[in-house]
Amino acid sequence: MIQGGPGRARAPSARDRLLRYLLSNKNLAGCAAGLGGLALWFTGVVGSAWPLVVAGLYAAAALAVPPQKVPVLSLGGGMDLADLDRVMAEQARRIAGKVPAEVPPAVQRIHQEVRDLLAREDGLTPGTPEAFIVRQTVLDYLPAALEGYLRLPRRYADNVALTGSGGRTARQLLGEQLALIETKLGEVTEAVVRGDADRLLAHGRFLADRFSTGGDLQLGDEG
After folding, report:
1. Looking at the structure, do residues 30 and 90 belong to the same domain, yes or no?
2. pLDDT, tens digit (0-9, with 9 covering 90-100), for 180-220
3. Most CB within 10 Å of its CB: which of 39, 72, 76, 176?
4. Is the pTM of this model over 0.70?
5. Can you give the residue range of the structural domain that contains 162?
6. Structurally, how many domains does the chain consist of?
């Protein structure tokens, strides 16, 4: 699933799915095994049954490659600040080496903004809009932005323009989404400092509309 800019997710087209598979580790492993089958035919090891041998080797190699997994982070019940910090540390660790070089610093800045909010002297009371936004940023909005990129083969995500994305790659879309989350979270911090409840709610609804994976969310409802 890739989210096109600030809008909702778009279903990948048949062309996108084909290109994604062609650049996937499964296809690369299958092709390498298939070439091995052709080598057996050229050297006379297999005879007229070589097409079946090549197809069988391709299928076996492709199936042997595990599907790419997206990190799933969860936190049950209410809002435990120590648990949120643990989740952020685990999130940073699990994306290491799986995303472009510019992504971890952006994620770290978002995490730091969250930590700054959590460290406020007056604290964040569970059930308040600001507490909800902080919690959902860590558990929903940020993972939703990362999910589309992580589900794609790296070469495809970095180099192929996605259908309906205005010519942008998944890497470019991810950068835009992380920048948007960082900007809105900064505005949430300003609204908290100023005690501007209306702007706080507006920023929270914006983030929920753009990034939530759980449907319509009610601000202030920790459930």
Report:
1. no
2. 999 988 888 888 878 778 878 887 888 888 776 643 333 33
3. 176
4. no
5. 75-211
6. 2
